[in-house]
């Protein structure tokens, strides 16, 4: 059974796709090997030039730091570490548009800069609040909450929501 939510819009979709390169519920991780990571990067329109195992580990570290930040909303030393290396100070381009320039020289710096710049802007606008991590500890899939009340907690009611309901039912039934 697959996830039934549409992808997040715009820049949030890029963040969502990056974090969902791991499907913990199914024990799948596109970043498990250098070849798998390179394949995922190419499939998502990114360069894999210069990718090696230490850079792959950095991408996994970045992915999980973003996931943890989206879940908790707390400051992250890891995200700040990536941001210091990959982002320049905010500025305005020639057309007068505000931007946070990416200083990435390596594949990791480039990806980190693009993702963190987008995450920063989305947080400033308040849109990032609809990007959530599934409450199921076995899953932790990122999803975009389109509910009017912005109160969804499961990536999918037919997967994680149903599992939670069944566990709750069984627990109540055992107590009878």
Topology:
Blueprint: H1 10-19, E1 22-23, E2 28-29, H2 34-43, H3 53-72, H4 77-86, E3 91-92, E4 98-99, H5 107-125, E5 131-133, E6 142-144, H6 157-174
Helix pairs in contact: 1-5, 3-5, 4-5
State the shape. globular
Class based on secondary structure composition and strand pairing: mainly alpha
Please tally the β strands and state the result. 6
Number of helices: 6
Low-confidence stretches: none
Strand order of the largest sheet: 1-2
Query: Biggest sheet, in brief?
Result: 2 strands, antiparallel
The portion of residues forming beta strands comes to 5-15%
First-to-last CA distance: 32 Å
Evaluate the radius of gyration: 18 Å
User: Kindly state the mean pLDDT as a whole number?
Assistant: 89
Written description of the protein model:
The chain is mostly helical and 176 residues long. It contains six helices and six strands. The strands form three sheets. A two-stranded antiparallel sheet has the order 1-2. A two-stranded antiparallel sheet has the order 3-4. The longest helix is centred in the middle third of the chain and has 20 residues.
């Amino acid at each position: 059974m697959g996830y039934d939510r549409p992808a997040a819009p715009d820049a949030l979709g890029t963040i969502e796709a990056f974090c969902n390169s791991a499907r913990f519920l199914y024990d799948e991780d596109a970043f498990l090997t250098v070849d798998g990571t390179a394949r995922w990067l190419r499939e998502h329109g990114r360069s894999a030039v210069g990718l090696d195992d230490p850079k792959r580990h950095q991408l996994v570290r970045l992915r999980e730091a973003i996931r943890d930040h989206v879940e908790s909303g707390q400051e992250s030393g890891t995200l700040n570490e990536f941001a210091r290396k990959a982002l320049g100070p905010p500025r305005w381009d020639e057309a007068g548009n505000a931007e946070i320039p990416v200083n990435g020289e390596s594949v990791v710096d480039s990806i980190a800069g693009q993702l963190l710049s987008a995450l920063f802007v989305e947080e400033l606008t308040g849109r990032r609040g609809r990007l959530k991590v599934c409450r199921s500890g076995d899953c932790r899939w990122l999803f975009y909450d389109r509910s009017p009340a912005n109160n969804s907690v499961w990536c999918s009611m037919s997967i994680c929501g149903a599992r939670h309901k069944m566990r709750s039912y069984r627990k109540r039934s055992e107590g009878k």
